[in-house]
Amino acid sequence: MASTYERSLLKGLVWEGFSFVVTLFALYFFYGDFTIALKFNILLTVVKIIFFFMHERIWKDIRWGKY
Fold it and tell me: In sequence order, which residues have a C-beta less than 8 Å from that of residue 36 and are 6 or more positions away?
């Protein structure tokens, strides 16, 4: 079964949506400043999406565990 670039990107975006909310609350709790927490979380989210996308594209070519 092939995995498209669009599928990998959408999976990353959906996961980061959930992750964004959880991380935002954690950062707010840690810093006590919503603006700082939001800025840091946006930067972190962009970086994580890029790395998740690259991770997905590498794993799509690995046959281990596929039927």
Answer: 27
- Residue 12 CB coordination number (10 Å): 21
Taking the whole predicted model, whether its pTM rises above 0.70 is answered as: no
Residue 58 has, within 13 A of its CA and on its CB side, a CA count of 6
Q: What is the pLDDT of residues 32-41, one digit of tens each?
A: 999 999 999 9
Instruction: Give the residue ranges of the chain where pLDDT is below 50.
Output: none
Domain boundaries of the chain, sorted by first residue: 5-59
Largest CA distance in the chain: 49
Spatial contact of 8 and 61, defined as CB atoms under 8 Å apart: no
